[in-house]
Amino acid sequence: MSLRLHQDLVDKPTTPPTGLSADTDISVTEKQTAAEPANTPPPPPDGGLVAWLQVVGAFFLFFNSWGLVNAFGVFQSYYQSDLIPSYSSSSITWIGTVQGFLLLLVGVVVGPIFDKGYLRSLVTVGAFLVVFGLMMTSLSTKYYQLFLAHGVTVGIGCAFLFLPSIAIVATYFSSHRAVATGITASGGSIGAVIYPIMFHKLIDQVGFGWTTRIIAFVALMGLSVSLLVLKRRLPPAKLSRSLLDIGALKEPPFVVFAFGLFFCFVGLYFPFFYLQSYFELYLHDDSSLAFYIFSVLNATSVLGRITPGLLADRVGGLNTLIPISLLATILSFVWIGIRDVAGTVVFACFYGYASGAIVSLPPSILTRMSPKMSVVGTRLGMTFMFAGCGFLIGTPIASTVLDLAKAEFWKAQLFSGIFVAAGTICFVILRVILVKQVDGWKI
Known about the structure:
It is found in: Membrane. Residues 50-439 form the Major facilitator superfamily (MFS) profile domain. The protein is mostly helical. It contains 15 helices and no strands. It has one domain (45-231, 242-435): MFS general substrate transporter like domains (Growth Hormone, Chain: A, Up-down Bundle).
């Protein structure tokens, strides 16, 4: 059973029909017959030592890209209380959202570079920028210095690491692609658990400067592993490719999916920035639990990045994403009514799980939607651009309706829930569109 694409998805009249298997995640371009040129790469190994080493290497790329972005909440709390207390929480939030925005936006440039075969160069440049940015952050004492070092430099470095971490794994796996991608994406959550704990344990002993430098050295060690094991499988594209695949913007499924990610990312990350403040100001709990709530949120996100992948390999990525996005929507609205510490901890556990799935599932879905594997990097970059715009504006806008002085969070919580709901509606619309193009139920 294969996906029937309308004429808009056909690049050239001579291009073979492209689509997706209803039973596997293998794109049709990977299952072409022997009648094609002899230099056509073989199908993905879907396992084996080399393939799983790519997962290890990509895991550390995710660990030191999304792991750092998701760990920004602990930096925000320190910046606001100690380093630059004269600045508003909204102003400090821009450092973290710009970091995440650049991680996603620069993917538009990184994608075509990856497609041309420069995997090792991308990882090398990304590793340098992340470590250099953290080192400069350790020396920063003013807002503009933190913005340039922690927000801009680290953000661009993370972008050079993030997209290759997803794209390289997608080329090595077919039926196990979703679970491999989920394991890779769990690196972001595990990094976001470890880095805040490191920060908390070291900040009183060695100060902010050395705490940040030690984090930089840990990142360098992990990225060195990635440089040792990552190996490109598919040959680079022979033809020069533009930064954008304009044809994708003519495909309704791609556009709806991109806007779904945009809306989700507008609302999804508010708890990752302000849950600790919620504990301290709204619940009046300034115990160590208030600090470790970020680790709880990210630890449960690990499960959310792996276990939905197991389900997606069986029932389809989009079929898995929709109910989990609905769960995140319900939790966002339920959070408004929570009034105690126990309920907030339960919320953090379930929300962390749902958010992890929303981050990890889209790449495998997009890979299946792409007409050919050679444009996966470019299309991933384009969808990340949409998600990055949502990430950039979401939390800062939410913080403008947030009143920390009065401990009034409900407006920002409502804002977050509405946009996650809008993203979920887009995913449902996408499912309706694709059901007309797929003979089977697995999408």
